[in-house]
Amino acid sequence: MRLGSLVADYPAPRLAAARLQAQALCSLPFLAFAATGGSGGGSASLDLRLGAHALGEWAARTLSWASGVSGTQAALLCLSAATAVSGTLLQFEGQRSVPAAAAQPIYASSPILTALWALVLLREPVNANEALGALGVCGAAALAGAARAEGASTAEARDTS
């Protein structure tokens, strides 16, 4: 099922909450792995027993792990959560009002914008292959936009005649 069919029926905050809850559920195994010190097996691995005692042990290990997070790391986690929530809300609101064909070039340019952000803020170098790939994505987005505009003008001409 495409998300576009859901944005017409449900408000963006409800969709965003469902998406973030699903992502949180998917991240629980990674949190458990981190709470065990990243061990893949042996006696220190995650105990999958059911019951309050096992849950209490898991919570204690998780809190022990979280207590080692620095203030900078905590601030980054909070900033990440805030941007994830706001970005998800904006995405669902945008999908409600912007047609998929018009939004595709924006989504296609996401890797380019990420690379530019890294270049400007982090001063990461861009090699020739990456620049060529960015040009390819820009060219494909331009072709898609031109085809969409041509299709719209053809439909308008057909409607007026």
Write the layout of secondary structure elements.
Elements: H1 3-7, H2 12-35, H3 52-67, H4 71-97, H5 100-108, H6 110-122, H7 128-160
Helix pairs in contact: 2-3, 2-4, 5-7
Q: What is the end-to-end distance?
A: 36 Å
Largest sheet: none
- Helix share bin: over 70%
Mean pLDDT: 75
Give the total of domains. 2
Order of helices and strands: HHHHHHH
Gyration radius from CA atoms, angstroms: 23 Å
What share of residues are in beta strands? under 5%
Shape: flat
Counting DSSP H or I runs of 4 or more residues, the number of helices is 7
Care to count the β-strands?
0
Write up this protein.
The chain has seven helices and no strands. The protein has helices at residues 3-7, 12-35, 52-67, 71-97, 100-108, 110-122, 128-160. It folds into two domains: 1-97, no CATH class; 99-161. With 161 residues, it is mostly helical. The two termini are 36 Å apart.
Q: Which characteristics define this entry?
A:
161 residues; 2 domains; mainly alpha; flat; single chain; 0% strand
